[in-house]
Amino acid sequence: MSQTEILARYGIPSRSMAIEPIRSEIDGAWRIRIIPDGGRSQYFDADAAAKLADELRSGGERLLATRIEIGIEQARRLAQSERAA
Question: Where along the chain do its domains lie?
Answer without folding.
Answer: 3-84
